[in-house]
Amino acid sequence: xxxxxxxxxxxxxxxxxxxxxxxxxxxxxxxxxxxxxxxxxxxxxxxxxxxxxxxxxxxxxxxxxxxxxxxxxxxxxxxxxxxxxxxxxxxxxxxxxxxxxxxxxxxxxxxxxxxxxxxxxxxxxxxxxxxxxxxxxxxxxxxxxxxxxxxxxxxxxxxxxxxxxxxxxxxxxxxxxxxxxxxxxxxxxxxxxxxxxxxxxxxxxxxxxxxxxxxxxxxxxxxxxxxxxxxxxxxxxxxxxxxxxxxxxxxxxxxxxxxxxxxxxxxxxxxxxxxxxxxxxxxxxxxxxxxxxxxxxxxxxxxxxxxxxxxxxxxxxxxxxxxxxxxxxxxxxxxxxxxxxxxxxxxxxxxxxxxxxxxxx
Length: 361
Description:
mainly alpha; 2 strands; about 65% helix; about 0% strand; globular
């Protein structure tokens, strides 16, 4: 909105030429979403607290965890969604189909997560939506997003799969692109959801992934940088850096309220939305495998759940004291802050490894 307004004034006032730069608007998107979340955060928390909108805590978790977190409001993802979507609408080029696809995915998965949170509160248990219905919702949302990309984006390289560290290793997935991309979207949204179990645990890794992809989208969408780094140049994908900036700003603002002891939880409203939006950005920028590297912490959490379930079904024994794996360390007696900070350190290292793939080819 503001992007269109200011760029229309360039011929009259040359100062407005600065709004043509993606880097400048990414910074504006970050700052705007941060301010929005700061402004609406406290009022929303008061409303949610008054209305007793608090999610149930798993009763099989550590006793200390149950005592401290019972009664804490949930659905804080609402403020994240408001911040990142409003900011993107203000500063992104709304003629860019990629922006609308990512907005659709984030908003739709946010609504699905909102319904899930609402059911948990109403039923007073941690189950929420029936897993089959939840999966079907994710499948439909992902399918619509892929339909839009395949039919309206003119993305010449959409069905290609690029492998990091190898400049010429490219696989055209053809019709297998659709199930692969759906796997990435659904897997990423659920992975962030599983990681969101301790105060601030998922928020910072999401910010790191978004920051990394802000850079990736910028260089992939720039002919000079793409050629220098031997990456596939994809026209118009640089605009997604602005959406990434809005994610960082919204999560940074949310972290103010979510830092231990959390005043509000993200809930499925935020985690499903953030995971899905990052996945759709990675698919458009053709860095799906790099997403798995940078977001390796989310992969680790998901794998721990899969191992736990398979082990119990096959042998009747559990590998971990509790899954996802962050709860395993809680059960071992680690302090929550220790787990969170150490997991953040892992996320930082993985982000650096993922970014290294841009140059090491």
